[in-house]
Design brief:
227 residues, 37% strand, 4 helices, TolA/TonB C-terminal domain, flat, 2 domains, 5-stranded antiparallel beta sheet, alpha+beta, single chain
Length: 227
């Protein structure tokens, strides 16, 4: 699968030192659901995480909060049809996990690629309707999700030049409300190959579905792999 910082891309690069965040091209407009309009709702918000690889392919989209589930479904459907230009680091296309905030109005919709802290601040200040949060902090869980199934990562050391007998990787990821690992990204690794092998194995793991106050939630976690 190779989710982490692949440098292979079909996109041309003119500046070898260019730095650029992920670009989203909204080829399909997200519409305000008619049933919400009929019920008197005229605006709302959806927060989501997008994971796009170095070729501009959407790998995953996970809703993290919403004011109305109908808006979340609309955003999910639209995001899967959009086009993406990958982020650039030192002129090279890279995969990226990105937090977005999508504001819906009856007259149109606005996409904001906003850091999580700024999203939280804007919600506290401006939200007219309370958000249903689908992601919680690990400290808010009823208990730490138990690991139910695991797969050992392949050892990539022999394929490296020179070969490396030992390695490690620390992976940041989310466990969704069904206990599935999603959106793995490398925090650090002795070599990128170890991080890719770790992420490929991690997405096959299964955890006990996390809960907070008895309700299913998603949670952000980290996992270290020692090779």
């Amino acid at each position: 699968m190779g989710l982490l910082l692949s440098a292979t891309s079909v996109w041309g690069v003119s500046d070898p030192w260019e730095e650029r965040p992920l670009r989203i091209i909204q080829t399909v407009e997200a519409h305000f659901p008619q049933d919400l309009l009929a019920s008197g709702v005229s605006d709302g918000e959806v927060h989501a995480l997008l994971m796009v690889d170095a070729n501009g392919k959407l790998l995953d989209c996970m809703i993290t909060a919403y004011t109305h589930p109908e808006l979340a479904r609309e955003l999910l459907g639209a995001a899967r049809t959009w086009e993406y230009e990958p982020a650039l680091e030192r002129g090279q296309p890279v995969g990226q996990r990105l937090q977005i905030m999508f504001t819906f109005h009856s007259t149109g919709a606005i996409l904001s690629m906003t850091p999580a802290a700024m999203v939280a601040a804007s919600v506290n200040r401006f939200a007219k309707v309370s958000l249903t949060q689908l992601v919680c902090k690990s400290s808010e869980l009823d208990r730490k999700p138990a690991l139910l199934e695991s797969v050992s990562p392949r050892h990539p050391g022999k394929s490296l030049t020179p070969p490396e007998a030992k390695g490690s990787a620390l992976i940041d990821f989310y466990i969704d409300a069904e206990g599935r690992p999603r959106m793995p990204v490398m925090m650090r690794a002795t070599h990128e190959a170890f991080a890719i092998a770790a992420a490929d194995a991690l997405v096959l793991w299964r955890f006990e579905p996390p809960t907070s106050n008895g309700k299913p939630v998603a949670v952000r976690m980290v996992q270290e792999f020692i090779f």
